[in-house]
Specification:
alpha/beta, 7-stranded mixed beta sheet, FAD/NAD(P)-binding domain, 480 residues, binds flavin-adenine dinucleotide, binds iron/sulfur cluster
């Protein structure tokens, strides 16, 4: 990696990239294949915290996310400020989105249609899966057209998972994930301990370790500790990026600006820049994550090959989405959110923890707000009725979905304070009155400003977003 000091950033640069998470890294990868001679400056607020540092310190970053914004909402938000962004803390779950996720408004009258389709992303989904060495099942194409060509074999399912797969082969699958099922050089296979934000075996994909072909690319110079404050734009053109470091301000002229600074800080940067077309910050949200435990009679779980072994996808799409959010069920094969069963005699493993993600509706009043201070404020009313209704349906359906198991009892545990996904705050669309960037993720007015990352998602869907974010960025980089 070629690190430079703030006073070495004067340029000139062909491209200034703000942030170094999923959106920025995958964009740069395909962009530099097409434009190997471009000079790129990466401005990253956080430090380069190696994966060994993260394990020793038991944290992903020395900048706690909660110190970077004020939160006026009943729920919390989570992310990493540091080189590699969310590729450090993420848990490596990588489902594709369903084709109908891109057509929520026209099919079910809710939310908004995406200005791109599943078909537009198919080639890049495949590419992103290869880059991240995703392990997954070869029958995934039953659910997501073209899927199933994974570079790593699927993880071993648990005993309950195997019964569920036999009963519902078309909707129940081994979970695709960026956690190795087979060791590769320098990285072990997943040992299923479930501390995936801090993976001790390096089985999980980390950008800083596994995308060195971007960080080490001779075209890329990296300045860490550089908090971008605003973009200096005139009319339809971004002229420069202004960042602060060590209490000083620096101005970097740029031909092209790629903003990949997460769903809270990217809109705040636009607000502080006075680039307020399309209401940056409005519609921030995420899907819901909830947990149930299924108590089993004589059947033991926790013998799977990774921490999240399987997914049931039967309700990720359907007419129910007109009333309440779509949902995913996943088998949790670790003790991250739940424990062993403690009643005697030895029934410790006779329980299946099931995580449920539920799509939420993004609403304009939920917003990142610039209050004139140093930090953005997030104002959010909590999960909407749409998500609550989806959750209730998902819980009611548990006996049906898991009917192949010897169910003794189902206990709802809780809604998690956050799903760790920031979405919607710089949404993409065809109408500049209701969206910030166009279908090519270019700002509707400032035409040399591109936004990457999950902030551009116009809906939450039920799916973990980072694979889709990576595929969108690859597509963008190879077409610009
Ligand atoms: C605990 C946890 C678990 C998760 N698990 C999963 C999972 O299993 N599957 C999944 O799909 N997703 C998961 N996610 C979500 C995933 O991390 C995000 O979807 C993804 O990182 C979003 O990519 P992004 O490019 O939008 O933002 P990020 O990856 O967060 O990148 C933003 C970058 O911008 C930098 N930055 C921010 N502000 C500034 C500024 N002002 N100046 C300069 N740089 C700045 C940040 O340091 C960072 O490098 C998880 C998240 C968390 C927190
Ligand atoms: S389950 Fe353990 S080994 Fe596997 S990715 Fe998570 S932390 Fe790493």
């Amino acid at each position: 990696m070629q690190f430079i000091q703030p006073d070495q950033t004067a340029g000139p640069w062909d491209l200034v990239v703000v942030g170094s998470g999923f959106g920025a890294l995958f964009f740069l990868h395909s962009y530099l294949q097409r434009h190997p001679d471009k000079k790129v400056l990466m401005l990253e607020w956080g430090r380069h915290n190696t994966t060994d540092w993260q394990l020793e310190q038991f944290q992903n970053s020395d900048i706690p996310p909660l110190t970077t914004f004020t939160n006026e909402s009943p729920k919390s938000w989570n992310f990493t400020i540091g080189l590699g962004g969310g590729t450090n803390c993420w848990s490596g779950m990588t489902p594709r989105m369903h084709p109908n996720d891109f057509r929520l408004k026209s099919l079910y009258g809710r939310g908004m249609d995406w200005p791109i389709s599943y078909d537009d992303l198919m080639e890049d989904y495949d590419w992103a899966e290869r880059i991240m060495l995703i392990s997954g099942p070869d029958d995934m194409g039953k659910m997501f057209p073209g899927a199933g060509n994974y570079p790593q074999k699927p993880h071993r399912m648990s005993a309950p998972d195997r019964l569920l797969k036999a009963a519902s082969p078309d909707v129940f699958f081994s979970a695709p994930c960026a956690k190795l099922s087979e060791a590769v050089e320098g990285r072990s296979a997943c040992c299923s301990n479930g501390s995936c934000s801090l993976c001790p075996t390096k089985a999980k994909f980390y950008g800083i370790d596994n995308m060195t072909f971007v960080f080490d690319n001779p075209a890329v110079q990296i300045c860490t500790g550089a908090r971008v404050r605003y973009i200096d734009a005139a009319g339809d053109t971004a002229k420069a990026v202004v960042f602060e470091s060590g209490g000083r301000s620096y101005t970097v002229p740029a031909e092209l600006v790629v903003l990949g600074a997460n769903g809270i800080h990217a809109p705040f940067i636009l607000q502080q820049s006075g680039i307020t077309d399309g209401a940056p910050g409005a519609y921030i949200g995420e899907k819901m994550l909830a947990l149930v435990e299924i108590f089993l009679d004589g059947l033991e779980h926790f013998d799977g090959g990774t921490s999240t072994t399987a997914v049931d996808l039967r309700y990720v799409d359907g007419p129910h989405r007109a009333e309440g959010g779509a949902n995913l069920y996943w088998s949790e094969n670790s003790f991250q959110w739940s424990g062993l069963r403690l009643e005697p005699p030895n029934r410790f493993r006779e329980v299946l923890p099931v995580a449920i993600t539920v799509e939420d509706e993004l609403l304009a009043d939920n917003a990142v707000v610039d209050t004139g201070g140093d930090l953005p404020k997030v104002v959010h009313a909590g999960f909407s009725d749409y998500a609550m209704q989806g959750l209730q349906r998902a819980i009611d359906k548990v006996p049906e979905v898991f009917a192949a198991l010897p169910i003794e009892d189902v206990q709802f545990r809780r809604i998690e304070p956050t799903t760790d996904h920031l979405q919607g705050s710089l949404r993409m669309g065809t109408d500049k009155a209701t969206s910030v960037v166009d279908p090519g993720q270019v700002h509707h007015r400032v035409r040399n400003l591109v936004v990457v990352g999950t902030s551009v998602f116009p809906t939450t869907s039920w799916a973990n977003p980072s694979l889709t974010c990576a595929a969108m960025s690859l597509r963008l980089g190879r077409t610009m």
